[in-house]
């Protein structure tokens, strides 16, 4: 699927529906499968997918998954800040896989809260989701991604990071600046939690 054929993601349920159609004949789902389904051009949808996968039950609890998602966020966020219009990921990262049954169960668990969240989506404070707002979101996402690997060893902190990434990505795709702001504030709260546990 090329970028022109990729459906636009504008909600959590829309993203889940799209991810459930990934590699239907395969026993495993790779990063490449997910990225091909979403498309390489949109920072918001890729950020939303990384956050949802980190946050989803069963999937985000697999050791190494938060770090994998953090690596993706670091690469695409850095490229956005560098002014690239189309993102690139290395082949070794695109080949990483998850078992399809675990992936699908995690998405199913995420459906009910996602429906509730989607009901509250509105176009609000669009200045936070435009060009400059996207750069602020990218900086915030990069900070989260840098902190995520050690968060795997601190209970619930990786979930907070996943939720923050989800809010940031969803804010961009739905043009809801309040969600972007909520993601930034949650990032600060998560770092406070990490600092309390570390120091």
- Oligomeric category: single chain
Q: Tell me the helix content.
A: 55-70%
Strand order of the largest sheet: 1-2
Which shape, going by the Cα principal axes? globular
Order of helices and strands: HEHHHHEHHHH
Please tally the helical runs, counting DSSP H or I stretches of 4 or more residues.
9
Tell me, rounded to a whole number, the average pLDDT.
Answer: 81
**Total DSSP E strands:** 2
Strand residues, percent: under 5%
Query: What Rg, in angstroms, do the CA atoms define?
Result: 15 Å
Uncertain stretches: 1-6
Q: Biggest β-sheet: count, sense, barrel?
A: 2 strands, antiparallel
The N- and C-terminal alpha carbons lie at a distance of 47 Å
Structural class: mainly alpha
List the helices and strands and how they pair.
Blueprint: H1 12-20, E1 28-30, H2 31-38, H3 43-55, H4 65-81, H5 91-94, E2 97-99, H6 100-118, H7 131-151, H8 157-174, H9 177-198
Antiparallel strand pairs: 1-2
Helix pairs in contact: 1-6, 3-4, 3-8, 4-7, 7-8, 7-9, 8-9
